[in-house]
Amino acid sequence: MMVKDRLSSLPDELIHKILSCCDIKIAVQTCLLSSRWKLVWTSLPCLNFSSRQFRKLDKFSKFVNHVLSHRNHQIQVSSVKLHFYGAANKDFVRKIANYAFSHNVQELTVSSSFSNSRQVYPSCLFSSQCLKHFTVTCNYMRLCTTKTEAPLDFPSLTTLNLSYITLSGDLFSKCVNLKNLTLERFIVEDVEVIDIITPSLSNLMLVYGSCSKAINVIAPQLENLTISNCYFSHLNAPPGLSSLCYTFQLSPCSLVQFSNDRFHSLNKVTICLSDYYPTMPCKEESARKIINMLQQLHSARYLTLNADIVEYISLFPDLLSQHPAPFSNLICLTMDYCKKKDAFIVTMSSETRKFLLENSPSATFTMKLPKSENYQFYKTPTKLSAARWHY
């Protein structure tokens, strides 16, 4: 009885999709399973290179050269991924970059792991007329290791993700069609103030970044800004911002100050105090900075604060009484839970409630609570009385 070869009957599109999820070396080896698949790897639209299967980078470089030289060039390449271990070898990076850009590849990802030295990539990696999605990232790096010496030249680029990157000047002004920019674990070197000049940018995400003084975001089309645990004193953002999500750790230098009276059309604002513990000393100066920041966000319509922030400013009722209620456009105020010990406990002083809601009396006040937990909510209008609700 003959067994039907179902693998060989699979359509090429499905085979391509399956093999594109694999390292290209594994894809080549897999093609040996069927005589009909023998040359399928030469027409894969997505190339996924990894040095994981090679003991030395020079052998990996030879393999890269073999794959690129034997590929079916009549088949369009849609994306290329490169992952390698150790310091960058300019030869194989240059080969892959030149091949990708000469074949009008629209998506390129370059990532590296386990390197203790600064990655220096060839300049050709940062210039393409066709590329639309570009990612450069590092894993398990001890230093911010990637640094470019000239502005990125990607006139067609719409999405850019950079991690462990060192910024030292204007990098983005030539990316005239850039819509989405993510900078993660970056530092600013050689200058105190950095300009992010992006004329078409819509979404900007800054994660674990460090700058000695300020970041100027010159992006008139910017709508959504996310900042998470960044360390710089000031951020100048465009006035047309619609959405702001800001997460910070409470330390003397962690709270970013926004330019005064810059936000006039904020729709959605989320502010979260991360890694805060009740045992940490509460400082009036930190509370003052939080209150000043909230006043700068006065135009918000939908405001979400995590409970740690609410509790923190509630510890300083006299300070709250010195500041006018900033929010006159609120439609909804949401308080997110915080976990302390075995229960979720939230304390809001009457001064805090007045500060947040006095100028928006019709605003809806809601709380986000997780499921299947022990919930407790404390509302303390005065220091002598308290009411408790169980959910």
Short account of what is shown:
By secondary structure, the protein is of the alpha/beta class.
Q: Explain this structure to me?
A:
This protein is α/β, with parallel strands linked by helices and 391 residues long. Among the domains are: 14-144, no CATH class; 274-391, no CATH class. It has helices spanning 12-19, 24-30, 57-70, 90-102, 284-296, 307-314, 317-321, 350-357; strands at residues 46-50, 79-85, 107-113, 133-139, 146-147, 159-163, 165-167, 180-184, 187-188, 193-197, 203-207, 214-218, 224-228, 234-236, 243-249, 257-258, 268-274, 302-306, 332-336, 344-349, 364-368, 375-380, 387-389. The strands form four sheets. A 13-stranded parallel sheet has the order 1-2-3-4-6-8-11-13-15-17-18-19-21. A four-stranded parallel sheet has the order 10-12-14-16. Strands 5-7-9 form a three-stranded parallel sheet, with no helix packed on it. The longest helix has 14 residues, at 57-70.
